[in-house]
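Good morning N.,

You mentioned wanting to compare the apo and holo forms, so I went ahead and generated the holo version with FE2/S2 (inorganic) cluster. This is what I fed in:
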Amino acid sequence: MSHGPSAPGVAASAHAHDAPYEPVFTPGSARSKELADLITRYPDKRAALLPALWMVQNDRGWISEAAMMEVGDQLGCTAAYVKGVVTFYTMYHQHPVGKHFIQVCTTSPCLCAGADKVVEAFLEHTGCKELGLTSADGRYTVIEVECLGACGFATPVQINEDYVENVTPEKVPEILAGLP
Ligand code: FES
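and this is what came out, ligand included:
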């Protein structure tokens, strides 16, 4: 069960919702060339959908409805098709998230090892009021996720691209203090 990516952010993120969408794959841009190169590797350009979405998320921080339309236009598929993929994978953000996207495994083995207390500690020390909401300073979003594949190192936490293993509630303040 995951809660975060489809949950709305707080006021700190509202601007990102309201701002006009800035296309990623503008003609002549580096991203446009990157996507064009990628498409040549596949018999069907829709096969480039996942990496195209990563490019958008890397550049814009999340994938808006307008971004889904842009990607659909680029790859010859409908925005609804793109949305089906975006909503399937929890790694894609459907709303703005904090600078540090914190994913705590709460699947049964980690839950038995106290993952729920780790979640509580992250919520308390980040100032995030709820799972999936972004802290007022825009730095943090905390969500629960299914197995992170590190069951022997409960509780594992993924912060952006990095894994932190054997996390306990007591370690949370130090982990947060070490983030840029
Ligand atoms: S159950 Fe938590 S990492 Fe596998």
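DSSP finds eight helices and four strands in the chain.

Happy to go through it together on a call whenever suits you.

Best,
F.
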